[in-house]
Amino acid sequence: MVSYCLSLGVYPVVYEGENEGKLLRHVVPKQGLENQIISYGSNETFFPHVDNPDLRLREEDMFNDVPTYIPDTLTLLCLKQQEGVATSILLLSDVLKDLAEEEKSLLEESKFIIKRPASFAGEAEVRDVPLLMKCKDGSYISRFDYHNIDTESPKHKVVLEKFKKSAIDQDKWISLYLKPGEIVTFDNQKTLHTRNGFKAKFDGNDRWLIRLFGTYDKPLKEYFVSSECNHHLRTK
C-alpha cells in the first residue's frame, strides 16, 4: 500500500497523537467504541468531513504555531466488505454549487472553530480559522468536518448550516462498495467523505479497511516529530 502511494507521487505520513505513530490505520469496528464517531465506530453515521481539519490548509499561512497541514490525500484499501456499508465521497465543488458568491466569501473569513477529531489523544481546538480557502488556481479547498466545526457568529452560522445541508444531500454522494483488494485515493482537501452507520457483529466479517494519509511533497524536516522518522508529523 505504501509502494502504491509512492507510485502515485504521494508521500506517506502519520500525525502526532493519532494511531500511535503508525502509518497504516485499521478502519474496523472495535467493541466498546461502537457509538464513537471515529474509524473504530460503527453505530453512528460518520457525516461528510475532511480528515485532520484542525491543521492548516496547504496554501494557508501558519497559525497558532501549527507547523503541518491537513493531509493532501487519503487512501483506503479494502480488506473486507460488509453488505450495505458504503464509503461515500462527494466533491467540494458540488457542495459549493449551492452557495452564492457572497456566502462562499463568508466561509473564507476566519470565524470558525475546529475541534480536533476524537481519534487523536487529548482534546484540542483551533479558533478563528476559515472553513474555505480559494487557491491560486481558482479552485477551493476546505477543512469542513460536520461533527467538529462551529462558529460564534450568527451570520456565519447561517451559511455554515446551509453548507451542512448541502453536504448531507445524498444525491451528491458517490457511494463506493469496495471489494477486498480494491483501493481508492482522493484529495482530502477537495473531497469530503462519509460512512453510513451499521451494526457490527464482531465475528471477523465486519467492514475492514486500511487507511493511509499522504502529502503531495515530502514535508520539511522541521515538521517531523523526530529526526529518526521522516513520516511522523508534528501537530503542535
Q: Output the CATH class name.
A: Alpha Beta
Radius of gyration based on Cα positions: 17 Å
In what range is the share of β-strand residues?
Answer: 25-35%
The CATH topology: Double-stranded beta-helix
How far apart lie the N and C ends?
A: 28 Å
**Overall domain count:** 1
Q: What can you tell me about this protein's structure?
A:
This protein has 236 residues and is of the alpha+beta class. The protein has one domain (2-233): Double-stranded beta-helix (4-Layer Sandwich), CATH 3.60.130. The protein contains 4 helices and 16 strands. Strands 1, 2, 4, 12, 14, 15 and 16 form a 7-stranded mixed β-sheet that branches. It has a 4-stranded antiparallel β-sheet with strand order 3-13-5-11. The protein has a 3-stranded antiparallel β-sheet with strand order 7-6-10. Strand 8 (132-134) and strand 9 form a beta hairpin. Helix 3 crosses helix 4. The longest helix is centred in the last third of the chain and has 14 residues, at 154-167. The chain is globular and about 50 Å long. The two termini are 28 Å apart. The model has no long low-confidence stretch (mean pLDDT 93). Residues 139-212 form the TauD/TfdA-like domain. Its EC number is 1.14.11.-. Keywords: Oxidoreductase. GO terms for molecular function: oxidoreductase activity.
